[in-house]
Amino acid sequence: MSTRKIAIFDTTLRDGEQSPGCSMKLHDKLLVASNLEALKVDVIEAGFAIASPGDFESVQAIANHVKDCTVASLARCLKGDIDQAWAAVRGAARPRIHVFLATSPVHMEYKLRMTPEQVLQQATTMVAYARSLCPEVQFSLEDFTRTEEEFSWRVIESVIKAGAAVVNLPDTVGYAIPEAFGARIGRVLEHVPNAGQATLAVHCHNDLGLAVANSLAALKAGAGQAECTINGIGERAGNAALEEIVMALKVRRDFFAGLECRVDTTKIMATSRCVCSVTGSRVQANKAIVGQNAFAHESGIHQHGMLANRETYEIMTPESVGLSQSQMVLGKHSGKHALKDRLTQLGIALNDDQLQELFTRFKDLADAKKVVTDADIEALARGLEMRNDGQQKLVFDRFLAATGNTNANVSTVRLKVDGQTVEEVAMGSGPIEASFNAINKMLNLHVTVENFAVSAVTANVDAQGECELRVRHNQKVYLGRGVAQDIIEAAIRAYVHALNGLLEDEQRMTANAAALAAAGAGGGLA
Ligand code: KIV
Ligand code: ZN
User: Which of 78, 112, 140, 144 to probe ligand 1 with, by most ligand atoms within 8 A of CB?
Assistant: First the structure.
């Protein structure tokens, strides 16, 4: 059987990061990129270099760090964007500039205010410009599905002539239907005379829940690159989920005869957990491949079948996606090495300070609970309040809350603020609000708390409580997570975590403003 290689292009760090509440810091992005490299995706789209100095910095850091994948930056069809993208990826072992321009009537008329001929011209000129800088250029016809078909063929032919090695045909608004989308890819191959000189890619959004089905139909019809994200995160309803595309190709090799990708599927779970942990966005329990229930068999009939022969109800093994069956239990006698090993298996990388902090909290937990599960360890890691350089401004110390349903709720909270112990007392409608009010009082802060949620990490009464919340301040949102055996403490830790992000951001903005002012003064004298 002849084989055709499918390239897996991961856009978790670009399109995925665009989903609400999924923004990541530099350290988080590097962690995700390392997991993607271990997963053996072909291309990592590291970000949109022109979008902000932070985006530029993270694309550049990933380009310099990753060795075994192509690293791409997105760029609008503008010279300035392309220059920034190139500056960010030029240090990569295999750099790529990904230029895009919309080609559908509605986008050209209302968003771009350009005629089709101007779009064709701009796309061609900018692909040629990008190609003059970077050895590999990808062009995307944004909103391809709603683009007039013959016009799309003209654009594809022209950008390939200008030097695009990959032409991406995105279903930007998730409008496609698998059979029609596959047929349309087939017609591109048939009608574009030089289509064979480039790889055709697809990038499907999930507005109708068809992103994976559309991607698979396109691959079967001749596309050579699938663009996707871990856990399917992305704009609106998300992008096609990488793990679903890859496992469909693997499990249904009989149907997708000859289509092969190089992904190491045993690294899927670790990468999925890593993305959940850095974005704070969990996957639903029944999510295919990576959901908590994806390999759970609840009904008696199913369990009976499974015991007789796993193939009765299992089309792929949990091990094939990296779900460990190991029952090795961590407890109070486990050392730092065992903890570090387990963290690696879970796709969690920590620096030395963070590992030490996690180890201390793990020991405390192991004293209180006989068995420390993977879920407990993941929750502890999610709740780490330590800044990457180990110098967070606020450190939680202790609290004492007086609560009940017959009297007012009062809480006294003690924090270290820049190393100094500060304590405040306040009232609130409940002990958590009273604790937050005490912190607001000591910092003289006015913020709004959103998406406040508390859950149990495991199902027993001795379970740890995990709190996740978002703090809004001056139009910006900061994620906070906290874990503790007491849910009030978990909430205070989450609040302190979010406030550390906010204070760090404000400190950076003040420093930038001071540097700009100093540069301005210097410029005047020169
Ligand atoms: O959905 C889309 O069309 C995109 C492009 C920038 C590729 O994300
Ligand atoms: Zn997209």
Answer: 140
